[in-house]
Amino acid sequence: MSLKIREFSRKTGLTTYTLRYYEKIGLLQPERDNANHRDYNENDLDWIDLLQKLKSTGMPLKDIKEFSNLVLTGDNTIPQRIKILEKHQEKVIEQLTEFNDCLDKVNFKIKYYRGVLKSNIREA
């Protein structure tokens, strides 16, 4: 599979500007064709998916860049990568706990208000 930047942009949901920026800062390194156009592949899709997940769960760009640099350096950096991911995992678990607490409160209020509506209907 080979995708040009516009096709890759559509598949990832990222703008071409963002893709070029990611390449500029070293987060993405697509192959180039004979005309020097970017050629993205399945590995690039998987990589962007991971980067988007890290970003959407609050990993700072600085940490994402550090992780990316370690990946490019090779397998000897796997222990450092694990450390970065475990640190982020702790933060995500904290976020999940907080969101679950919020969801419990929202669910409680929905149940309460539905009960109020039922009471008002019975009284009418």
UniProtKB/TrEMBL annotation:
Name of this chain's protein: MerR family transcriptional regulator
Any Pfam family hit: MerR_1
Family matches, as InterPro entries: DNA-bd_dom_put_sf, MerR-type_HTH_dom, MerR_fam
Presence of keyword Metal-binding: no
Domain HTH merR-type, chain residue ranges per copy: 1-70
GO molecular function: DNA binding; DNA-binding transcription factor activity
PANTHER family in the cross-refs: MERR-FAMILY TRANSCRIPTIONAL REGULATOR, REDOX-CYCLING DRUG-SENSING TRANSCRIPTIONAL ACTIVATOR SOXR
CDD domains, alphabetized: HTH_YyaN
Xref: SUPFAM superfamilies: Putative DNA-binding domain (SSF46955)
Top-level division of the source organism's lineage: Bacteria
PROSITE patterns according to UniProt: HTH_MERR_2 (PS50937)
Source organism of this protein record: Iocasia fonsfrigidae
Keywords carried by this UniProt record: DNA-binding, Repressor, Transcription, Transcription regulation
